[in-house]
Amino acid sequence: METQSQEINMTDFHNIQMSDIQGNEVNFADYEGKACLIVNVASRWGLTSQYAGLRTLQEQFADHPFEVLAFPCNQFGAQEPGSNEEVLDFALTKYNVNFQMFSKIEVNGTNACDLYQFLKSEKADEDGNADITWNFAKFLVDKNGNVVGRFSPKTAPEELTETILGAL
Prior knowledge:
There is one protein chain. By secondary structure, the protein is an alpha/beta fold. The chain has helices at 50-60, 84-95, 114-122, 161-167; strands at 17-19, 25-27, 35-41, 66-72, 100-101, 138-141, 147-151. The strands form two sheets. It has a five-stranded mixed sheet. It has a two-stranded antiparallel ribbon with strand order 1-2. Strand 1 (17-19) and strand 2 form a beta hairpin. The longest helix is centred in the middle third of the chain and has 12 residues, at 84-95. The protein starts with 16 loop residues before the first strand and ends with a helix.
């Protein structure tokens, strides 16, 4: 797995760049003025059905400046073992995803990508821990690039509607 690390201003969400699941560079400056729900996803876990909820949120807020950004991660119980191509095929075939998918990443440890280093430094979990506990942890970033919420894997995407409206 290649790490996605570059020199960035870790205090600005909109300075981050990541590779999408097809290898294209995505500049997060493109998300200025949009609220973003960022989720580390996996295809082999009991919460994988949350893909459907993420798709629903993307549809529900289609006319708003809002984006779901999904980051496959294999750090928890080897629940995302496939290649980027396999992950994308699964997400499209099984859940007809309509949101941005990114290349596989690590969210914890020395190889944690810059995005997750930033997110974790901005918002600890409800117990005060920075590290991600499992797949489908969620971060909400407002249109100005501020991390305004962090939600446990068990929080269903549909539960975030009101919180997302507040971030728009």
